[in-house]
Amino acid sequence: MNKRFSILRILLHGFFLISANLFSLIVAFAIIQFFSTDTDKVIQSFIALIINVGIYIIVFKLMNGIQEEIMRIDDFSMFAIIFLVSLSLLPAIFYPMHYLTQGYWSSFDNLLAMWPYQMIVNGLCLVINFFILKRKNV
Prior knowledge:
Blueprint: H1 3-34, H2 41-63, H3 68-71, H4 76-102, H5 108-137
Helix pairs in contact: 1-2, 1-4, 2-5, 4-5
């Protein structure tokens, strides 16, 4: 596998993880608002976690066989790089999206609130990918 293709896979994984994170958080917020419940962020985060992991597994299964090379994580170093890229790309995607939808720049506190969620969910998704594909390729 050439280095350019690996960098493209890392960026693709990172962007996909961030997109799934933001989508699942928005859907979880909409579900909470729809039912007009006054629940805390833990329930919203749990709903978002289920949606996020579900999205990742569904896309993983859809791409498995079609574009398996794109979805495969070669080793633990690639796993760690994808994880760090997904954390570092969040501001580049979140701030412009927030500005376009809300009309003002978000505070850094929102980013600090999203990073722990993103660490847990992205770590879980990448571990699922890493072990499913490693087991398949053995």
